[in-house]
Structures are given as structure tokens and as C-alpha cells.
Amino acid sequence: MKTNEIRDAFLDYFASVDHTKVESSSLVPHGDPTLLFTNAGMVQFKDCFLGAEKRAYTRATTCQKCLRISGKHNDLENVGRTARHHTFFEMLGNFSFGDYFKQDAIKYAWQFLTEVMQLPKNRLWVTIFETDDEAAELWKSETDVDPNRILRCGEKDNFWAMGDTGPCGPCSEIHYYLGENVASQSEAEFRKEDGSYLEIWNLVFMQYNRLPDGTLNPLPKPSVDTGMGLERIAAVKQGALANYDTDEFQSIISFTAELCGKKYIGKDYTIRDLEKDEQYAVDTAFRVIADHSRACSFLIADGVNPGSDGRGYVLRRLIRRACRHGRALGFDSAFLFKVCGKVVEILSPVYPELTKAAKRIEKVIRAEEEKFIETLGSGLTILKKEVDKVSKRSSKVLPGSVAFLLHDTYGFPLDLTEDIVSNAGLSVDRKGFSEAMDEQRERSRAARADDTELILQRAVKPLETKFVGYERSNAEYESKILGIFNTDGEIESASEGSDVAIVAAETPFYAESGGQIGDTGRISTSTGTVDIIDTKKAAGGTIVHIGKIVEGDISSKQDARLIIDDARRSLLRLNHSATHLLHLALREVLGDHVQQAGSRVSEHNLRFDFSHFEPVSRTQLEEIESIVNEQVRANHKVVTEVMELDAAKAKGAMALFGEKYGAKVRVVEIGPRSLELCGGTHAERSGDIGFVSIVTETGIAAGVRRVEAVSGPGAVGYLGAKRTAVHELADILRAGEDELTERVSRLVERNKELERSLERFQQKENSSRGDSLTSQVRKLADGTQVLATLLEDASPKQLRELADDLKQRLGSICLALGSVQDGKAIVLTAVTDDLVDRFHAGELVKELTKVVGGKGGGRADMAQAGGGDPNLLESALNRFQELVA
């Protein structure tokens, strides 16, 4: 039975027992900051289980895309080396939200496995939670499983929880005996956990709510969450020893074998030394590439791009790990993008998003591969030398500074370095790596929202609210306050000066979503007034008005008047409609591979992030701007319509990155060429926008570009400021506006000439300094040459050039140079290659900063620090003399 047949059979079976087929959600969880990736089938239903979201159905079935890169079954270093470790996998599941419970869940599972899949009953075993007598009786009454094969296990194996608190409950696991001797099965053999019994399905019965003190209170509506790995059940049905021996994996492996000309043997999954067993290394490489190509393809299709942190960093790690294993197959140029093309071919009939993203997958993977290949060889050479040094010292730990050098200079993720050195029996000093990271590199972090706002948003309990703000006439609206919340939770009333979150029955306030920021305004009751500074969505889509009481007091259940800042909303409408037209123009000029990767619509401007692999040229930007303004001048009516999601997609409406859509969606149409799913607020006609001006175009990550633009009054202000700047520049240069380009070009060229002259002078000065400094070199008792000296007004660049000159002149030396620039001390240490085993420039400079202050670091052969106290430079150089003596 093929994998795609099993997938269809599962979904069809549960549809036949009144479950709604629900499409897999994205690997990027929507609105859940606690998760990096979707790692289980229940993730998209989390709010349903919590009671925060109600859907049109109470039974669902899915085949969910999942990604796990750590945990009990998914340690990355084991992927490819064992029979069942994976990063990406598909999870079959059936779910009940307060509908059926244990009885039907058990009956359905047994029926599917034994009747639809026709698995032999004499190979099936069941485990239950040790105190779950109800499940034990149901397994006996609803199935014909051998009662002796219903085993009780503890909380570790058979009790599931969403977290330390919240919904939880016992689970039943179904296991399949893989061995050849069916008669030898026994409880004792089962409990050995030697791999002979494979867990294939987990039925979770969520029946309790765990309180902070550990108390388990029964849930009013118990639910069911089940999960069965598609790859595992496929291996069972196909009689495969391992998941990698099933049809879909074998198709990828066979394709890879054709590319490289090597054979895949497989069959043996005993973990061995990759360096000592060539065929095992080859087989492992095939499996790593097969696994990672699937993960990378789906991540990119779901909007993730390689980057230096978060999800992007995970993608980069997977691409680079696959590239490194590709060397075992003889690949010395980009290949993974071709394998990913095979993944698209195999799985696109099930996941059409792969087809839409096929070109983007190829371009992103290929660009990242080629970038890494440039440095891989050099990095591996350095790592081999460092491993040899560690081994000679009879140590088992690679210094963290070396791992950081490979990470920072050669792009080796830490786990890749650990993966490689583990083959030599070494580990990496993770603490040293972290210290080097902290000292050497400031990583960009997304700006965090105000803590008060976050706390207020999270404190709100789910309540039913309705948005009525699409109509301009509802800018002021009479409603009722359903709840008031502060950072401690729900409160009955609050007085002047209090920060609060307010939930109203109906509201014209738009909650931040789809890139459009939330509305501001005020809420008034007969007893008080609240200034609303933001509007957001809490769990289950509850609209939350965040603000401060500026007058009187307010109470829950009061009638209230909700008034949005309509002038601000008008600007948001214009910028949001302009964003849709910009998206249209980008795709028409750059190509269909352009997909939204993020956006922000404020009253001041709009920002649009999109997938593209090179800077957008000035000519292209002009064409994009021209198309947008052509659509503005056409004065199209902006038409909105609510329809079924499938109908909207069939009509050609574009679904946007990161958004979660229900069964019914709102479609926004601006003219014949722009059709998008969007819940935001818009202009009534495109002509209301006035005109749009693109301000900047930049790259923000590998394969992701960002355009910022202004529209309407913002565009008028922007162009007015540019016109003023041109006038001022013309006055300064005493030139006409039509002469500015030529005059500025001449000034720039003259400045370059002066810089070149200055550089030649500094080189001569450095050379003469080098001549004089050689006389200051002293020798240690063993003949080692050292130098520590202060230089007047030398820049960091001059210090580096001088250090290189001295190293070349003297052949063997350990030196420290100090100088002062802009009132701050600069210290540089350098060591020739023959001395790096004794002196580490980076470690030396760390010691000097303890004396002089400032921050810095570097490689084993050269390091630098700056920002210290100039008055302590001499003391720092004296400390250097002590360290090297």
C-alpha cells in the first residue's frame, strides 16, 4: 500500500464517520509565540481545546505537516543515523471537541487499523495510563484485542499535558510488533523497549484541567486528540525495516543516487562511526538529504527564508547539514535544490503550495547552497587542524572560540561543528561558544511590544465580540462592556489612571491583523472615559481595547460609546489599499514567485516584505511605482465580498503569509487585477489614495526584500521634503537643480582622490613605523619574540596593517599594540601561526580589556578591543608583558 493511499484511506475513513476533513495548517504556527514550528496535529486546534474558539464542526480529521528539531524522538544529530528520526513528518489525526470521547476514539482506531489497514491483530499491543480503568474496560468491550496485551504504564509514557497547567489527560498508545517470531511476544519482551515494538498511534483523552497546585479538575467537555505518524504506518504496511525504506523516501533516495552515482544499501541502522565505515557514511548521507530536502521544501513553501535567528536559522542549519553530508556522496557543487525539486514533484499533488512555491524553493536553496559551499572547504580544513591539536593535547573538548570562529566566519552552525567533531570522539565547549557569541556579535532582535500591552492582551479571557467597523457610519458606536481586565486578570471596575483592557460586545475598532495596526480612539460611559492606545486580538479572536482611564471610572456591563480616531483610520485605509496595489505591481514586474513575507500598515506609511532573490533595480522600482499609480488613477471601486474559502481560492484570490483563515473569508477586489483575502479596512475607491511613492527598497534576510512606501497625504509630505532638500543642496553648491548631479559627482571623485593620497601617506608612515618598532622587539628566555608598544593616533585599520607587516617581517612574534582615537583606547594583539598553540590573541585581548576596559575579541591569530580608558593603556601593555613572559 503506497503512502499516498494510506493518507487518503485515513482521511476517507474518518470522513465516513462524520469527521470534517481539514487542510493541514502551515508549519509556521499562527498567533502562537510559544511555538517555533507546528509540531503536532492538534496545534491548529489549540484554541478549540481551550474553549477559546468555536468552529462549525465538532469532529475533525487531518494530515498535518509537522517539524521537530529536538526532543525525545528528534535529536537532530540522530536524523539519518537511525530508522525513524526525522525533522519533517506528516501526522494523521482525528479530533473531537467535546463530541465523542474514549469509547468512540478506541473503536475508530481499532477499526481503522484492523479492518481498513488489515493489520494482523496478533501483532498489536495497547498501553494505557496506570489508573485509567475506564480505558482498560473499553479496550476490552469495544475491540477484540487480547486482554493480556493491554498494559498499564506510568505518567511518563501515558499521560499527556499541554503544559504545566491547562488541559491534560491519560492516553492510550497502540504498538505494532516488528519481529519475525510472532509466538515469542510477551509483556516482558515488550517492556525491554529494544525497538521490536513500534508505537504507531497515540490516543489522547483530554479530560482534566491541571491547576498551578497540581490539582486535576474534570473538564466540562472532554475532548480527543490522536496522532499517528504517516511514515511509521507506511513502514508497517510496506513491510519496511525503517521509514527511509518506504516508497516516498526511496523515490527521493533513488533520485539522489542518480545524481551522485553512488549506491544506497541501507538495511542496517546500528549507529556506527561515520569516519570508519564508508558505506554507513554514504547511507547516512542519503537519509539526511532525503529528510532535510523535505523539511526545507515545506519550510520555504510556508514562507520561511534562511536567516541568522529563529525559524530562518533552523532552515539554514538544515540546508548546511545536508550540504555537508553531500560531500560523502561526492557532491562538490550545489545539488540540494535538485533534490528539493523531486520532493515538489512527489508531494505537490497532496500539498499544492509546493507547486506555487517551486521556483522560490529552487532559488532559495540554490543561493544558500552556493553561499555555503564557498566557505565549507576552508572551514573543514581549519576544523580538522583544530581537532588534531585537541587530540594531541589528549583533550576531548574543542574550544568554544574555535566553534565560534567557524560559525562567524565560515557559517558553520554550532550543531554542525558538534556533528563533525563527535566522529572524532570530541565535544564542543558550549559555554565558551556562548561567551564568544555574547562578546563578539550583537544579534538583531525584533523590537518588543510594551510589556503592559502584552500582559493585558494575555490576561483577557475568551469572550464573543463582533467587529462592526467596516462601515464609515459606525465610527461612533453604542455597545456594552463585556469585561474589564488588568495584568492580574478580570476586574469589575477601574478608576482614573488605571491601565486596562476592555472587551465590548460589538466594536468599530479594528484589531491588529493582516499587517494593519490596531485602531485608537476612546471609550466613554456615563461615569468615565478611556483613551484607547491600541486594539489587538486575544485568544479565540476576542477584540481587546487597550488603554488608560483618563477620567472617572468604568464598570463591567456598562453601556458605552466607542469612538475611533476616524482621521487616523482614513489614512490606514489608504495605505492598506495601496499595499494591495503594490503587491500586484511587484508580481507583475518581478514575477509570480513574489509572495508576501510580512507587512505593516500604519497611518504614516506602509511596509511590504516579499520573497525575491536580488535587489530590485531602480528601473524596476520606477515601473512598479508607475503600475501602482496607474491603478490609483483608474479610480477602481474597492469591492469586498464574503464567501467560502474554497470558492475564494477558485476565483484566484491570494491568501497572505501568516494569516489564519476560517471557512468563510472576506475577499477584497481592486480592479480586474488585484484580488486578495483580507480582513482589513480599505479606501472606497483606488482614486482616494491620491498617489503612491516608494521610499526605500532593502534586503532584510536571504531571499526576502522590503519595500517601504507612502500614499496620500504621506506621499505629499515625502515629496515636499525631497523638493526642499534639493533646493537647499542647490543653494549650498550654488548650482541650478539641473546641474546638481554633475557637481556632486565631481565632489565625490575629488574626495576619492584625496582618500587615496591619504592612504598612500599612511602606508609610508606605517612602513617607517615598522622599521623603528623592530628595534623594540625583545626575546623571552626561550627565544620567543614579543612586542608591546603605544602608537600615536593610529586607527584600527592602521594597527591591523602594522601587525600584519611586523608578522611578515619577523616571521615569529607575539605582539600587542595600543593607540587612542576619538578619546577611546584601542588595543590589538597578534600572534604568528607557529605560536598560536601557546598564545591565543583573542584570549590575550580579553585579559587586556579587564585592565583598560572596553569590549572586543577575535581569532587565535589576531584580536582587537576598543572603547577603554586611554589612561590605562600603559598598564594594559604591562599586563600583556606579564601574560606572555
Describe the model.
This protein has about 900 residues and is α+β, with helices and mostly antiparallel strands. The chain is about 40% helix and about 25% strand. It contains 25 helices and 34 strands. α11 packs across α13 and α18 packs across α19. The chain is globular. About 0% of the residues have low confidence.
How would you sum up this structure in a few lines?
With about 900 residues, this protein is an alpha+beta fold. The chain has 25 helices and 34 strands.
Estimate the global geometry from the Cα principal axes.
Answer: globular
Total separate domains: 5
Major sheet characteristics: 9 strands, mixed
Estimated share of beta-strand residues: 15-25%
- The unreliable regions are 441-452
Give the tags.
BirA Bifunctional Protein, domain 2, 39% helix, six-stranded antiparallel β-barrel, Elongation Factor Tu (Ef-tu), domain 3, 5 domains, 25 helices, alpha+beta, 25% strand, globular, single chain, nine-stranded mixed β-sheet, 885 residues
Secondary structure layout plus pairing:
Elements: H1 3-16, E1 20-21, H2 46-50, E2 59-67, E3 88-96, H3 102-116, E4 124-129, H4 133-142, E5 150-153, H5 155-158, E6 159-161, E7 166-177, H6 187-190, E8 197-210, E9 216-229, H7 230-237, H8 247-260, H9 278-301, H10 310-326, H11 336-347, H12 353-356, H13 358-392, E10 397-398, H14 400-410, H15 414-422, E11 427-428, H16 430-440, H17 451-459, E12 466-467, E13 476-486, E14 489-491, E15 493-495, E16 499-504, E17 506-507, E18 521-524, E19 528-537, E20 543-555, E21 559-564, H18 566-590, E22 596-601, E23 606-611, H19 618-633, E24 638-644, H20 645-650, E25 664-670, E26 674-677, E27 692-701, E28 704-711, H21 713-733, H22 740-773, E29 778-779, E30 785-790, H23 796-810, E31 814-821, E32 824-831, H24 841-852, E33 855-858, E34 862-868, H25 873-884
Parallel strand pairs: 1-2, 4-5, 10-11, 12-17, 30-31
Antiparallel strand pairs: 2-3, 3-9, 4-7, 6-7, 7-8, 8-9, 13-14, 13-16, 13-21, 15-20, 16-20, 18-19, 18-21, 19-20, 22-23, 23-28, 24-25, 25-26, 27-28, 29-30, 31-32, 32-34, 33-34
